[in-house]
């Protein structure tokens, strides 16, 4: 009822959660993965607002999806763990239907959200890849610093990896395959 009445969601049974920044409203069906996803949106919006930046949807949803499943290590840090989205991303890579980074990073919000079942797994996987290589924080710092020059995020990958974007894309594809299912 809340999804329909308050949020105008057409098919609420298919919507696990929503965060509407303009209303500062977070609604989730559970206190697990969906809540973590939407809460990450809230935190990311706070950071974007502080910086005066509006990150593209692939970054917003990729980060939120990343925090759906993780565990705390003995040292007190976060380790992201694969979820069903990894298997989907791997199938896309195996079938060679994943989007090249350049194309994914160039999608406008409407196009990204229209293909959410296809794009969320790849976006999450890219951030999981960064985290696995201990490059998530350096990438985000580089991205925010260079946002005015390249809001897509592509140049931040080139800076952090010291490689052209196409080579980083190939490295990610190998990483996805090497992880298994």
Question: Can you describe what's shown?
Answer:
Helix 2 crosses helix 3 (57-66), helix 4 (84-94) crosses helix 7 and helix 8 packs across helix 9 (154-161). The protein starts with a helix and ends with a helix. The protein is mostly helical and 181 residues long. It contains ten helices and four strands; from the N terminus they run αββααββααααααα. It is 57% helix and 8% strand.
Concise description?
The chain is mostly helical and 181 residues long. The chain is built from 10 helices and 4 strands. Helices cover 57% and strands 8% of the residues.
Characteristic key phrases:
single chain, 181 residues, mainly alpha, two-stranded antiparallel sheet, two-stranded antiparallel ribbon
Strand content: 5-15%
Please, how many helices?
10
Cα-based radius of gyration, to the nearest Å = 16 Å
Order of helices and strands: HEEHHEEHHHHHHH
Total strand count, please? 4
Class of secondary structure makeup: mainly alpha
Helix content: 55-70%
How would you characterize the largest beta sheet? 2 strands, antiparallel
- Give the spatial strand order of the biggest sheet: 1-2
Q: Give the termini distance in whole angstroms.
A: 37 Å
Mean pLDDT: 92
What characteristic shape results from the CA principal axes?
Answer: globular
Poorly predicted parts: none
């Amino acid at each position: 009822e809340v999804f329909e009445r308050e949020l105008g969601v057409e098919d609420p049974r298919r919507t696990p959660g929503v965060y509407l920044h303009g209303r500062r409203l977070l609604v989730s069906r559970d206190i697990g993965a969906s809540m973590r996803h939407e809460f990450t949106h809230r935190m990311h919006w706070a950071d974007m607002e502080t910086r005066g930046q509006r990150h593209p949807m692939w970054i917003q949803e990729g980060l939120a999806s990343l925090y759906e499943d993780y565990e705390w290590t003995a040292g007190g840090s976060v380790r992201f763990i694969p979820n069903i989205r990894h298997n989907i991303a791997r199938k896309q890579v195996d079938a060679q239907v994943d989007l090249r980074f350049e194309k994914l990073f160039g999608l406008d919000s409407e196009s990204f959200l229209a293909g959410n079942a296809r794009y969320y797994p790849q976006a999450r996987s890219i951030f999981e890849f960064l985290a696995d290589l201990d490059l998530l924080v350096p990438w985000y710092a580089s991205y925010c610093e260079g946002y005015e020059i390249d809001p897509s995020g592509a140049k931040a990958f080139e800076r952090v990896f010291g490689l052209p974007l196409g080579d980083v894309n190939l490295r990610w594809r190998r990483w996805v395959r090497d992880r298994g299912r």
